[in-house]
């Protein structure tokens, strides 16, 4: 008896666990799904009425683009803007080829209430659909995945075109143009090598990042090898790659021979001639005689010779003859 009661208690406990595991996720989904697309549109139009503006008209094309955006966010598990909302609604057919202006509000959360969403969208940028007099059309969607709800609202207007997708009887606005909202992006400072990178933050889209840095979406896709426009919070995007250094032709250094310091060339020594001391001879007897030129001397010698000859002849004539 006690054994049967123990088995029943165990079965009851296991059944309770199974019931909790089934009911708890369902309650989470129901809590996350309490806000509907109609609630989002009602929030926007209620705030517009408080600002003295006419309500936005539900547009089937914008309903479709909002639903596609919420679905993409849920599939990627990312609560961030896809980017280029203006181009996406125009591609879907809104404006029928005219100039299109659009803005996108998103939010994500578990068990969020309409009051929570109003608080998330209370800044000036998210209030554009509620305060922008030029906006005329609206679309919204809520997509639930894994207990998380993804909320999307698209507000738009076109100039010079039709009002395709509007509900019957809706009018058009003649208010001044309002520029498309682009989520604020704080640009990064170039690094020392000239490259620029950007860390994606909440609410930033590839298009808004491109506008902030003055580049195109195509350039960002090429630099970061992106196939689409989906980016996620925390992604590091290359905005500008470091410039590739230009390879200069290698110059073969010319070996310069050391400049020789000119040595002084010795001046050949010219020996000075040894001077032989000139001896002044002591004047002799002949030197003391009066200087006679040659003709005079010759004439004198002839006279002396003649006198000598005469003396010799005279002497021989008067010499005594020896005795016989």
How would you describe this protein?
Helices cover 39% and strands 13% of the residues. It contains ten helices and six strands, in the order ααβααβααβββααβαα. The protein has helices spanning 2-32, 37-50, 60-76, 85-91, 114-120, 128-131, 206-213, 217-224, 285-288, 294-318; strands spanning 57-58, 99-109, 137-145, 148-159, 196-199, 236-240.
How would you summarize the topology of this molecule?
Blueprint: H1 2-32, H2 37-50, E1 57-58, H3 60-76, H4 85-91, E2 99-109, H5 114-120, H6 128-131, E3 137-145, E4 148-159, E5 196-199, H7 206-213, H8 217-224, E6 236-240, H9 285-288, H10 294-318
Parallel strand pairs: 1-3
Antiparallel strand pairs: 2-4, 3-4, 5-6
Summarize the structure.
With 324 residues, the protein is of the alpha+beta class. 39% of the residues lie in helices and 13% in strands. It has 10 helices and 6 strands, in the order H-H-E-H-H-E-H-H-E-E-E-H-H-E-H-H.
Helix- and strand-based class?
alpha+beta
Q: Could you give a short account of the major beta sheet?
A: 4 strands, mixed
Mean pLDDT: 77
Range of strand content: 5-15%
The shape is rod-shaped
User: What is the C-alpha radius of gyration, as a whole number of Å?
Assistant: 64 Å
What is the count of β-strands? Answer: 6
| Gap between N and C termini | 231 Å
Please, how many helices? 10
Give start-end ranges of low-pLDDT stretches: 22-32, 167-183
The helical percent reads 25-40%
N-to-C SSE series? HHEHHEHHEEEHHEHH
Order of strands, main sheet, comes to 1-3-4-2
């Amino acid at each position: 008896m006690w054994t049967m009661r123990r088995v029943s208690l165990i079965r009851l406990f296991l059944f309770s666990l199974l019931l909790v595991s089934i009911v708890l996720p369902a309650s989470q989904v129901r809590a996350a799904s309490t806000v509907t697309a109609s609630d989002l549109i009602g929030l926007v139009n209620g705030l517009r009425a408080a600002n003295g503006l006419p309500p936005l008209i539900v547009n089937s094309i914008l309903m479709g683009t909002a639903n596609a955006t919420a679905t993409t966010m849920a599939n990627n598990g990312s609560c961030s803007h896809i980017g280029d909302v203006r181009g996406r609604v125009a591609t879907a057919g809104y404006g029928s080829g005219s100039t299109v202006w659009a803005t996108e509000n998103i939010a994500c959360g578990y068990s969020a209430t309409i009051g929570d969403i109003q608080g998330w969208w209370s800044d000036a940028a998210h209030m554009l659909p509620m305060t922008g007099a030029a906006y005329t059309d609206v679309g919204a969607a809520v997509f639930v995945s894994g207990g998380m709800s993804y909320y999307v609202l698209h507000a738009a207007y076109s100039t010079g075109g039709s009002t395709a997708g509007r509900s019957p009887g809706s009018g058009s606005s003649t208010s001044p143009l309002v520029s498309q909202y682009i989520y604020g992006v704080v640009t990064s400072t170039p690094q020392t090598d000239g490259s620029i990178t950007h860390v994606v933050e909440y609410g930033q889209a590839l298009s808004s990042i491109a506008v902030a840095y003055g580049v195109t979406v195509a350039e960002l896709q090429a630099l970061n090898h992106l196939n689409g426009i989906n980016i996620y919070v925390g992604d590091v995007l290359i905005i500008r790659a470091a410039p590739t250094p230009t390879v200069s032709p290698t110059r073969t250094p010319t070996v310069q021979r050391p400049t020789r310091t000119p040595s002084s060339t010795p001046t050949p020594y010219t020996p000075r001639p040894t001077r032989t001391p000139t001896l002044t001879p002591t004047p002799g007897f002949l030197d003391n005689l009066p200087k006679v030129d040659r003709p005079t001397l010759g004439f004198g010698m002839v006279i002396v010779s003649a006198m000598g000859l005469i003396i010799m002849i005279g002497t021989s004539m008067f010499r005594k003859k020896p005795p016989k």
